[in-house]
Amino acid sequence: MKKLLVLLIAVVFGGQMYGQTYNTFEPSKTQFMLRGYGHTGFEYMDSGDETESTFLGAAFAPIFLYKHSDRLMFEAELEFVLEGNELETGLEYADVMYVLNKNMIARAGKFLLPFGTFMERLHPAWINRLPNTPLGYGHDGIAPSSGIGVELRGAFDLGGPTLNYSVYATNGPRLKDGSEEPEEAGMLLFQNYEDNNLGKAYGGRLGLLPFSDSSIELGFSAYTTANTGQEDSEYEDVGAFLFALDFSLVKQISGLGGIVDVKAQYNNSNVDTATYFELEDGVEEEYSFDNQSNSFYGQLSYRPTMASSDFVKKLEFVGRYSDFNAPEGAEWEEKSVQYAFGLNYWLSWRSVVKLSYQTTETEGGHDGDGLTNTDGLFVHWAIGF
Amino acid sequence: MKTIYKTVIGVIVMTIVGITAVACSSTKKGYTDVPDTATAAAEEEFKIEKSGAQMWGEACNRCHIAPSPADYNDTDWETISLHMRIRANLTENESKKIEEFLKSAN
Which end of chain B lies in a sparser environment, N or C, as judged by fewer CB atoms within 10 Å? Predict the structure, then answer.
């Protein structure tokens, strides 16, 4: 009987003790976060003889962050967009990151490339101050946005100023040699997930924040590859060299009662000269051109954060200039200039309603020769979660 | 050349809207004047050991609007801090200090 009592007590108290240890809620070492963003909008475009107005298909981009330890982490972003009636999916990035030491972090997988700052840091809809990218980015853009490969990055404290770097090797771009789309011969296609040759692309960025308040950053990026064409084709050894310069200033200026944000980036792409073919009245003709493209954008925005009215505090005024020059002599020769103005209302730090007016002057381009003036009105809404 | 006119008009409209909005809102003087010497002294102090709070205000506003400490819990801040340290190429010191501040102030 005594034994039974002792056993009973042991079970009851033991269970409680077990329960207690179980309940001392230790935070788990591994952490998983589901984040992301969505955006949708309305656009009205007028290019003289053509007008268009449309509600834009909503986009939804979930982001998965998994922190395995203080050193090891995984990030991935999926993108769901409606293109016409089709659901398009994309894998923006998926990479592992490992902190090697104080100044070195290794990344591997598909990652956003630090070629300048726009694509890596500023393009998500809830960060970008305007509803679209500047000229020269995105589809048919000249700046590489992501790549599959490996990267080493890090930052150094210079006792006030800081210096950051990244160097990477990726599969690199593929040259459109005109065999499939003759009108795009000579363009670089960066979505080249299975390398078409043995040559890899190497690149990097160096960023300097000269002041201890981190208000200004200057960056230089380069990206080079010796092979862009299909292996064993005459284009295999067509190389490319790209560089970018970027600038950022973000500062609260009391005299202006708010935060001033300046961003700028210049991209230059230089692809080795090659001979392409075009069909002219059923006859194949050779042609060649100096394959140099460049683009630039400068953006100024201002938020009156010191205003006493809660409504005004959340406003933001934006202006952006961008231009894009594609090579003379190419089938896709183009000179475009765009001015964009915007008024934003920030519902939260990651949720914004954007109103924007843009005017673009295009000479040449995909849609043929001549000058086109396009005016656009945009209402966009973006939320990060 | 037409774009020039549009630009000029755009800039003027934005400036007028901006100035009006700001001017109408700040009828009362929002901040007291701090003597320059005091600011200088404060800045000197910060140089010696900058606080996580100040670093948060400076570094986390560079790309997007900085989130407030209350937006996430401690566990989330750990993940975010590592993510941002890597994505934004912050120094280890910056990201540690900011993480400490965010966790202490939420």
Answer: N
